[in-house]
Amino acid sequence: MSLLEGIKLPASTLAISAGACVAGGIVGGLIMKRTAKTTDQLPEKWIKVGEIKKLNVYPVKSMSGVSVNEAVVARLGLQGPNNPLLRDRVFAIVNAKGVCVTQKQCPKFAKVEAKVDGDQLHLTYLLDPSINIAVDIPTSAEDAKKEKDVTVMGEKLKAVDCGDKVAAWLTKLSELPDIRLMYHLSEEPQRSPVKRNSRFHTYREEHTGTFQDETSYMLMTDESLAALNAELETPVSHANFRPSIIVGGIPEPFSEDFWGFIRIGGEGGPVMKASLPCQRCVMTTIDPETATFRTDGEPLKTLYKLKRKVGDPKVSKLVGKSAIMGAHFGGFQGVGSVIQVGQPVYAALL
């Protein structure tokens, strides 16, 4: 039997009491109820579902990121604990109309390493490291006066142009005309909910980030990736999906589809609220090692075949037959807390 056919996730009406979980020795393998009446109240009952295996920060949207052992849970996404200028997806490449350009237009970006060192952004083309550039991060009050309109996922926000030198470097590398590097200087959200997200009763305006497609955090699990890879001739990695938080040690793949809230660490740890499932696009078919599109359409092709519920019946209806991998979250409590690789992750019982 195909693994995809064999996965039988619990129905969205399944309810598990905390007492039953403790008495039976059951942990995160049992997936909890997420009702249509999603609450914004802090949950009282939690189940340990795994632990943090990896934390990723992607300074530039659509470029390679950096793995960190610890990070600050900031309002707009993960942030470096020792350098506040290391922030998730605060740089974006745009065309002459100010619209974001991604790997879909230039797969080469998959092999551009983006690192923040002090007050500079360093870009290196990993297939030829001699092709590199350092960019001063615009952070002054004068820089703020130079903000321009940028469009990401149909939403307009303000960003600062990083200059002609890096624009010329990116234009030469990508062979795309008139592209610029823009910086999200503000530490406050600028984006408003759009119709595609406002349809989800689980989504909140405060979940918006900087240049992320949907929300400030995206979570995946090792077990879900392994279940997908069991169906593929050529396995893929988390790099195909670019999550900021990777959780491991969950007994069942795709359990994350049913988590209404997660808490990282013990009592008092930061809490994140589930916002919406991550609906995948053709960018997942770019091989992160070669920076080229795969000719077989994978892993997207197989993800479309994976028919499963995503926890809440209303959410399942909205995503329909989309290719789902991972879940979007937004900060709920404990913004400013530091999280670390190895910390336990708990999910709420709703």
From TrEMBL:
Residues annotated as transmembrane: 12-32
A Pfam family it matches: MOSC
Origin superkingdom: Eukaryota
InterPro entries: MoCF_Sase_C (IPR005302), MOCOS_middle (IPR005303), Pyrv_Knase-like_insert_dom_sf (IPR011037)
Entry-linked SUPFAM superfamilies: MOSC N-terminal domain-like, PK beta-barrel domain-like
Record-annotated MOSC domain positions: 188-348
Keyword Transmembrane: yes
Keywords of this entry: Membrane, Transmembrane, Transmembrane helix
Name listed for the protein in its UniProt record: MOSC domain-containing protein
Organism listed in the record: Orchesella dallaii
